[in-house]
Amino acid sequence: MWRIGHDSSKSDNISALCPQKARKSTRIHHICREDRNNMSTAGKVIKCKAAVLWELKKPFSIEEVEVAPPKASEVRIKMVATGICRSDDHVVNGSIFVPLPVILGHEGAGIVESIGEGVTTVKPGDKVIPLFTPQCGKCAVCKHPEANFCMKNDLFNPRGTVQDGTTRFTCRGKPIHHFITTSTFSEYTVVDEISVVKIDAAAPLEKVCLIGCGFSTGYGSAVKVAKVKPGSTCAVFGLGGVGLSTIIGCKAAGAARIIGVDINKDKFAKAKELGATECISPQDFKKPIHEVLKEMTGGGVDFSFEVIGRLDTMAEALSCCHEAYGTSVIVGVPPGSENLSVHPMLLLTGRTWKGAIFGGFKSKDSIPKLVADFLTNKFPLDPLITHVLPFEKVNEGFDLLRSGKSIRTVLKF
Ligand code: COD
Ligand code: ZN
Ligand code: ZN
């Protein structure tokens, strides 16, 4: 799935990534680093529990894994909490390709256990969030003022490794792959310094872990990608955790009217609690839902969001925004390599059609600010967390996701 629209030159960029070069340390530098690291485990292999996916469409297996110490420019993190995101399940069911066996999970928060040579932005004891979209700060994307999809990401053409092309996990004598530079379904994980950011020491990790993916993806789609305007009308297709976060963003940006669209009416109450002014189900109407929305809004909404990951709802979301000034944002990605065809007139009359990963946020720059905003009550996270389970119950958490019973399950270590 992640290969849709992929530029083939990108794979060359990825395979040409320079392995991080370890700088020779002076004796003094070495002592300083060891002082700051956790002396009991730093520099040693850690044996701990992780949820390993050995085969597609099979449950996770809780295994004892070995986690190697961080090399130069790497950070080893003790995970405290991780959310379960729909994209993790897309890997299990085969609609997102990544190399197996793998340790999944990309919506986590933890505490730095030790750092490799040359790491300067985090230190042992810091609360951190791993970044599934890194921010290297050096590539053309990172240097662009608006773009966020850093070229050192491991989403397209995933290698399942850290930046130097190797893995830090082994289990039963076999190397285990990393997942999109995070792998949060493990008591300890190793990430590159470009894939981790320090957050406020006061942050509750079992909540702010959602800022690592689902919350920011939805919220940023409204405030950063669409740039929703005060007094505007918005339509949000899909009222899962990400769609609800989009609603939170629309409300924070001052939208006057927010229309939730979902086939599951059980989702309506929470959507209204978080800011939807009305909710509709396409199954209650004979005509296409974009026509219904155009009638409801006197010609079309200002901003629409597709937060389901279906081609038909992407076309509906585009059509429901105003033909002369509407903006539609794609947040979901359909499983499998599917193409969407739309009539060019839909755009020619003045609509804008956009999409973004991670809500368009530059991850290292934005996550600490989002955590600070949460701590000052600028937005809630609690309503998104419907279940909290011990990490060992990861399979139960996925069952809740698949049955539609949960919005977000947070696993605690
Ligand atoms: N019409 C209306 N609503 C529908 C329809 C339909 N035909 N089909 C499903 N729905 C509703 C469901 O009832 C559900 O409430 C909602 O759509 C989807 O919610 P969830 O809980 O399945 O999904 P989320 O909110 O956790 O995530 C949705 C995404 C679209 C973001 C996700 O699945 C996705 O596509 N991710 C890839 C894109 C991305 O940016 N990933 C970043 C890393 S995750
Ligand atoms: Zn996710
Ligand atoms: Zn970059």
Characterise this structure.
Strand 10, helix 7 and strand 11 (257-261) form a beta-alpha-beta unit. 26% of the residues lie in helices and 21% in strands. It has 413 residues and is an alpha/beta fold. Helix 6 packs parallel to helix 7 (241-252) and helix 9 packs parallel to helix 10. The relative contact order is 0.15. It has helices at 8-15, 27-36, 86-92, 140-143, 205-208, 214-226, 241-252, 268-274, 289-296, 311-320, 345-348, 363-375, 394-402; strands spanning 46-52, 61-67, 74-83, 107-115, 127-130, 169-171, 174-176, 188-192, 196-198, 233-237, 257-261, 278-280, 303-306, 327-330, 352-355, 385-390, 408-412. The protein contains 13 helices and 17 strands. It has two domains: 46-212 and 381-412, Alpha-Beta Complex (Quinone Oxidoreductase, Chain A, domain 1), CATH 3.90.180.10; 217-357, Rossmann fold, CATH 3.40.50. The strands form three sheets. Strands 3, 4, 5, 8, 9, 16 and 17 form a seven-stranded mixed sheet that branches. It has a six-stranded parallel sheet with strand order 12-11-10-13-14-15, sandwiched between helices. The structure holds dephospho coenzyme A and zinc ion (2 copies). One zinc ion (ZN) binds next to helix 4.
Task: Summarize the helices and strands and which ones pair or pack.
Blueprint: H1 8-15, H2 27-36, E1 46-52, E2 61-67, E3 74-83, H3 86-92, E4 107-115, E5 127-130, H4 140-143, E6 169-171, E7 174-176, E8 188-192, E9 196-198, H5 205-208, H6 214-226, E10 233-237, H7 241-252, E11 257-261, H8 268-274, E12 278-280, H9 289-296, E13 303-306, H10 311-320, E14 327-330, H11 345-348, E15 352-355, H12 363-375, E16 385-390, H13 394-402, E17 408-412
Parallel strand pairs: 10-11, 10-13, 11-12, 13-14, 14-15, 16-17
Antiparallel strand pairs: 1-2, 2-6, 3-4, 3-8, 3-17, 4-5, 5-9, 6-7
The structure holds dephospho coenzyme A and zinc ion (2 copies).
